Amino acid sequence: MTFQQVYGYEPTVRYSAPGRVNLIGEHTDYNDGYVLPFAIDRRTVASIGQRDDRVLRVASAFDPSSVVELTLDELDPSRMHGWSAYVLGIAWALREQAGADLSDKRGFDVFIESDVPVGAGLSSSAAIECGVALAFNDLWELGLDRKTLARVGQYSENHAVGAPTGIMDQSASLLGEQDAVVFLDCRTLDTAVVDLALEANGLEVLVIDTRVEHAHATGGYKARRESCERGARILGVEALRDVSVEDLPRAEERLDDETFRRVRHIVTEDQRVLDTVRTLREDGPRAIGSLLVASHESMRDDFEISVPELDLAVATAVEHGAVGARMTGGGFGGAAIALVDREARGAIADAVTSAFAAAGYREPTVFTVHAAQGARRD
Ligand code: GLA
């Protein structure tokens, strides 16, 4: 299906936005902490036709038989269902969160296609939100900057889609740059671009999609977020970002065991992000392997968001010579990443696939990703 086949005319513009991989810094974003994601060379494309009335129509290649329609006067989360909320929610959030005046604006026909795998923890949803946010911002001439658009995307995800996620995915999708990682302070939204230099070092990032599906609107993600908020409240800080590694022994005395382990993950993970940035700058990507592995162990043992498939992917990749590996994204399924020598890529992918078969797990999908440019008009 194409835009033409759904709407019967050619689109006027196309915008695209990438999914993301997080190199390190997991669940730190909603704790006002640090993250280090990069935008990947898998994108969502939003093809758009401009209308003369106030109707927004939305269709996608995943579900071409259904075209969802709403006017700009009816924008409200209660009227947004299923995947179309990722598009319609952006128009609503531009008004609600960024204060955009849509009263004299005209609608669009939107068609979404994507090669970001869905449910793999690679932010297929943020890719839709960010492509659409950039498009609406341009076409409605709202003049909002990319950091504001990231907040709009998060607001829509939180309130229109209903997933209590942080700001990382939208920031990566909007601010990503070729061959670089985005070092983001989630409290201030200050960013620095850090050179990854993979090519120069003969390295690649492999994604190992376990195909174990997860959903962040329900379940574990929300529970982890609540544990972190409880920890911060008991420790008397605004967010866990304000707790340092040196504060942990005192925190242990004041928290129950489970809350303490959740807090310890966040506090040590923030430190690992800072250490990774420094290591990348001073010693290059080959030196970050042990930080990646320590991050995985912390998520497995303290934050308890890994699953056996992710643990097996990480252990097998490291045993077969990966520089480092860890699960990436929200957890409870999805993908792991492994930093590997270009020549070792095939052997490591085969070893992981065989290990999955031997364990009786579903065959994983393994592919290489490159750090790519963020959302843009194509
Ligand atoms: C999901 C959320 C992000 C972040 C990660 C975990 O991807 O959307 O905001 O919390 O999980 O780091």
Automatic annotation (TrEMBL):
It catalyses: alpha-D-galactose + ATP = alpha-D-galactose 1-phosphate + ADP + H(+). GO terms for cellular component: cytosol. Belongs to the GHMP kinase family. GalK subfamily. This is Galactokinase. It is an enzyme of class 2 (transferase). Catalyzes the transfer of the gamma-phosphate of ATP to D-galactose to form alpha-D-galactose-1-phosphate (Gal-1-P). Keywords: ATP-binding, Carbohydrate metabolism, Cytoplasm, Galactose metabolism, Kinase, Magnesium, Metal-binding, Nucleotide-binding, Transferase. It holds the Pfam family GalKase_gal_bdg. ATP binds at S60, G119, A120, G121, L122, S123, S124, S125. GO terms for biological process: galactose metabolic process. Residues 285-357 form the GHMP kinase C-terminal domain. Pathway: Carbohydrate metabolism; galactose metabolism. It comes from the Bacteria. Mg(2+) binds at S125, E157. It comes from Curtobacterium luteum.
